[in-house]
Amino acid sequence: MSEPLPVITAFRWVPDFVKGHVRDVRVRWALEEVGQPYQVRLVDGVSVKAAEHRCLQPFGQVPTYEQDGFTLFESGAILLHIARTRSGLLPADPAKAAAAEQWVFAAMTSVEPAIMDLGLVNVFEADQPWAEARRPLSVKRVRGRLEDLSKRLGDKPYLEGEFTAGDLMMACVLHGLDGTGLLADYPNLDAYVARCRSRPAFRRALAAHLADFDQTPPLAA
Amino acid sequence: MSEPLPVITAFRWVPDFVKGHVRDVRVRWALEEVGQPYQVRLVDGVSVKAAEHRCLQPFGQVPTYEQDGFTLFESGAILLHIARTRSGLLPADPAKAAAAEQWVFAAMTSVEPAIMDLGLVNVFEADQPWAEARRPLSVKRVRGRLEDLSKRLGDKPYLEGEFTAGDLMMACVLHGLDGTGLLADYPNLDAYVARCRSRPAFRRALAAHLADFDQTPPLAA
């Protein structure tokens, strides 16, 4: 390799229920799909909010991407950058590449907001007095998206036939429903997520994500 | 023109409080910035959910984009497609173009979900018994994003110095705070949104968006 390896950031420690869901998984998976080795710089809950990290990521989050002086944040933008500069995640035909990219946006802007709202109900606002009363509204919105997506996927293996960056992101987003039981009501989507997650590149990415965590929480946690 | 004009979809009628906020504004603005004439096909609340439209947009929404047999949905994907195939919205340098695109994702995936949640509180769940109690949590999340974004923008006119597709999307997303008074607490962001919206291309796009609405609601509304 003449170029220096890309460096991504990931958390040194997270609670068990967050493991597998941090967004560095998306970037690791993309790098594995295109066969690009990478390095990881681990950060913690304090350093991620410090000024030095915020130069890379203004919202104090992970992942970030750095290579040879080039820096990028936002998992969606990093995914598209990797997909466009290496082969394996986007068709060569520009119209087909645009179709794949629209699924990255569909995953992150049409599906994920509904799933994140259910995350508020089930996790982040679970102790609030309104959590139980709000859940049906939130579940209904998620089901609306799943219904539409299930119909569009039909019996295809992937959203545009062949696996693309769009499937990578959609599988990560739908994995956010893990533990809710909702996906089981849409068997083709359930099988689709399993199909995506059975890819060797994903297995390697998940293993590396999990292996990088410290086993014990920091003192401040 | 040898190529047929692109055709986008927009709503024939929406309630007054939604005018200016429908996502076809984003696509019209992009087309105006690059100097690309376009045609509009108006749809209504029934036809947008019908099978024919869902072939173009699986979630039954607007806008869609069609040109010479090529079709695309998701305002973010349409924006990037326009920006990449015409000049005026992305720098020619690939690293700078990627930096601009990361702001499209930052707007839609880091900022907009918080603003949409406040929209639930203030509009779509305003009549629910928990609305008042939830508002402080939702406002706090929006303020967190605005604080970070305000610091990153600093005294620059645009997020990466020159106006890009990232500013177009961020200005549209921040406009979602209209009526909440929150933006006024971040004077540089407030001025930034006004700066973006004062661009002649935006003024033309907004005027066309507003002119296309029927003045009277359909019988079913």
Task: Write the topology of this structure.
Two copies of one chain form a homodimer.
Chain A: E1 7-11, H1 24-33, E2 39-43, H2 51-56, E3 64-67, E4 70-73, H3 75-85, H4 94-124, H5 131-153, H6 165-175, H7 187-197, H8 200-211
Parallel strand pairs in A: 1-2
Antiparallel strand pairs in A: 1-3, 3-4
Helix pairs in contact in A: 1-3, 1-6, 1-8, 4-5, 4-6, 6-7
Descriptive report:
- Two copies of one chain form a homodimer.
- Helix content of chain A is 52%, strand content 8%.
- Chain A is an alpha+beta fold and 221 residues long.
- Chain A has two domains: 7-88 and 202-211, Glutaredoxin (3-Layer(aba) Sandwich); 94-199, Up-down Bundle (Glutathione S-transferase Yfyf (Class Pi), Chain A, domain 2).
- In chain A, strands 2-1-3-4 form a four-stranded mixed sheet, covered by helices on one side.
- In chain A, helix 1 (24-33) packs antiparallel against helix 6 (165-175), helix 1 crosses helix 8 and helix 6 crosses helix 7.
- The termini of chain A are far apart.
- Chain A binds chain B through residues 54, 58-61, 70, 72-78, 80-81, 95, 98-99, 101-102, 104-106, 108-110, 112-113, 116-117, 120, 125, 128-130, 133-134, 137, 145, 148-149, 151-152, and chain B through 54, 58-61, 70, 72-78, 80-81, 95, 98-99, 101-102, 104-106, 108-110, 112-113, 116-117, 120, 125, 128-130, 133-134, 137, 145, 148-149, 151-152.
